[in-house]
Amino acid sequence: NKWRIVFPNNGRQWKDWKQASAFYSGNRIQTTKYTWFTFLPQNLFEQFHRLGNLYFFFLVVLNWFSQVEVFHREIAMLPLIVVLLASMIKDAIEDYRKHRFDETINFSKTRVYDK
After folding, report:
1. Per-block average pLDDT, block size 10, for the chain (115 residues)?
2. How would you label 41-64 residue by residue, b for 16+ Cβ within 10 Å and e otherwise?
3. Residue 89: DSSP 8-state
4. CA 10/CA 43 separation, integer angstroms
5. Which of these, 66, 94, 98, 60, lies nearest to 80 by C-alpha position?
6. Could you give the C-alpha distances from 110 to 5, 7, 12, 28, in angstroms and in order?
C-alpha cells in the first residue's frame, strides 16, 4: 500500500473535535465532471460548443425543409450522431477512470503529522 502524508495547518489549536469538524469540510477528492444525472445534458452542452458540431447540426436542420433538402433527412443526421456518440463514449470512459482513481485516493491510508 502507498501512504499519503497530510501536513495540517497547525495555526489554530482545536480542543473540541465537533467544532473542528464543523469548521472544515471533508477532504474527499473529486475530479470527475459528470454524475449519472448530469452526463447527457452537460455533455451535449459541451459538444455543441464546438464549431464543427454546430455546422453539422445546421445541416441537419436545413435538410428538414423540403426546399433546401439535399440528402435524405436520416443520412444528413448520420455524421452528427456518429461524432456525438463517439465523443460521449470517450468522455464517459474518461470520467469513469477518474472516478475509480478518486476512489483509490479517497480510501487510501494516510499519516497525519501533528506538532
Report:
1. 58 54 68 91 93 90 80 83 95 95 85 67
2. eebeeebeeeeebeebeebbeebe
3. H
4. 41
5. 60
6. 6, 10, 21, 13
Hey, what's the cell of 34?
A: 459528470
**Looking up cell 445534458, which residue turns up?**
41
| Chain Cα centroid distance, residue 70 | 37
pTM value? 0.68
Residue 62 in 3-state DSSP? Answer: helix
| Residues composing the chain | 115
95, 34 contact by CB (below 8 A):
yes
Q: What DSSP element (H or E) covers 60?
A: helix 51-63
Q: What is the mean pLDDT of the chain?
A: 80
